[in-house]
Amino acid sequence: MRIISGNYGGRPLKTLPGQTTRPTSDKVRGAMFNMIGPYFDGGRVLDLFAGSGGLSIEAISRGMDQAVLVERDRQAQLIIADNIQMTKEAEKFQLLKMEAQQALQVVQGPFDVVFLDPPYAKETIVETVTALCQKNLLAEEVMVVCETDKQVELPEEIADLGIWKEKIYGISKVTVYVR
């Protein structure tokens, strides 16, 4: 895996071996950013189930200012730390070593882009997006980008957000919610 585009384009990304995390493939990540960007003029990103950190690092590479990455798995945290060091701009990243629901109690908004790629996607996504809205953590022009198995059917609306775009890439589905 590698960073697709932007300031870090072409740099390799480490990923966790085994089945603990499911890193977003280069193809899906590239398609995802073409849906939502592909480049940004600043802003903050929240990645609540960071895995290898690839989505947040790609977002910073493409122009976001700051990323908050949340990951509970110890091995994944080490991989994220290595990947952040690869950027040589570690000050742009904050790694929270905790559960996503715990992180929602401590993070400070607003966030312009939120990535959600949790295990057991449907239940967690609805609950998490609702919490993000209730805690006022989302910018007015927010994009909440959800990656799920293509079989998962997410609701048309969650809290005050509605589906803007939805596309299937192989076994993955990317759903983008906006206000």
UniProtKB/TrEMBL annotation:
Enzyme Commission code: 2.1.1.171
PROSITE patterns: N6_MTASE (PS00092)
SUPFAM superfamilies: S-adenosyl-L-methionine-dependent methyltransferases
InterPro entries found in the cross-reference section: DNA_methylase_N6_adenine_CS, RNA_MeTrfase_RsmD, SAM-dependent_MTases_sf
UniProt xrefs under CDD domains: AdoMet_MTases (cd02440)
Keyword presence, Methyltransferase: yes
Keyword Nucleus: no
Keywords associated with the record: Methyltransferase, Transferase
Pfam assignment, any one: Cons_hypoth95
Highest taxon of the lineage: Bacteria
Region (Disordered): 1-24
GO molecular function, one term: nucleic acid binding
Stored Gene3D superfamilies: Vaccinia Virus protein VP39
Protein name: 16S rRNA (Guanine(966)-N(2))-methyltransferase RsmD
Organism: Streptococcus zhangguiae
Source species taxonomy: Bacteria, Bacillati, Bacillota, Bacilli, Lactobacillales
